[in-house]
Amino acid sequence: MDRAQFDALLQMIDGLIRKQDTKMRMAIPTVIKLEITLCYIATGDSFKPLEYLFRVPECTISLFVPEVLTAISQALKPFIKVSESVNRS
């Protein structure tokens, strides 16, 4: 994935995964969430190496990765063609 494709995907899902900053903590930037998620699906690693690489707790990664994957699925749905399965009985 090149930078332009990454930026386009980020723009498509930004509104779906963005969280508000609070007085107690700063929200993880959407760009970091997408980077971590793409590394996770590209490498197949567990969350532990990603925790060290991005300095985001493993438990936090485990919470937002499913959200980001759902957002990607929703954003790319118009571009994905799913054919009907053939029943071979």
Q: Secondary structure elements and their pairing?
A:
Layout (H helix, E strand, L loop, with lengths): L2 H15 L12 H14 L3 H8 L3 H19 L13
Please explain how this structure is put together.
The chain is mainly alpha-helical. It has a domain at 32-78. 63% of the residues lie in helices and 0% in strands. It has four helices and no strands. It has helices at residues 3-17, 30-43, 47-54, 58-76. α3 (47-54) crosses α4. The longest helix is centred in the last third of the chain and has 19 residues, at 58-76. It is globular and about 55 Å long. It starts with a helix and ends in a 13-residue tail after the last helix. The mean pLDDT is 92.
What structural class do you assign from the helix and strand content? mainly alpha
In whole angstroms, how far apart are the ends?
A: 40 Å
Question: How large is the share of residues in beta strands?
Answer: under 5%
Look at the structure and give the mean pLDDT.
Answer: 92
Tertiary shape: globular
Q: Which key features would you list for this structure?
A:
mainly alpha; 63% helix; 89 residues
Task: Give the structure's gist in a few sentences.
The protein is built from 4 helices and no strands. The model has no long low-confidence stretch (mean pLDDT 92).
